[in-house]
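Researcher: Dear colleague, please comment on this protein.
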Amino acid sequence: MELLFEIIFELIFEGVIDAATSESRRVPLPLRIICTVISVALFGGVAVLIILCGVVCVTSEDGRIVGALMFIFAAVYIAMLTRKVVKFLRNRG
């Protein structure tokens, strides 16, 4: 069952990313916009979850170091995503 969910998620996720970054005219513009919104929501959701885990860890007594590491990881994750998007947009234009 886990393998089935993994395959389905991978197909959907990769399809959304490929459609959102497609230069082909075969993929209609509204579909590319919807796929871009879904991609941003997925990556943004992961960033929010990392930040929330960091907040939960910082508020506990023993998890301050883990919480700080989670915040650092979230910052690196967001910086790398921003770098990827900027690089993609520069190559497009």
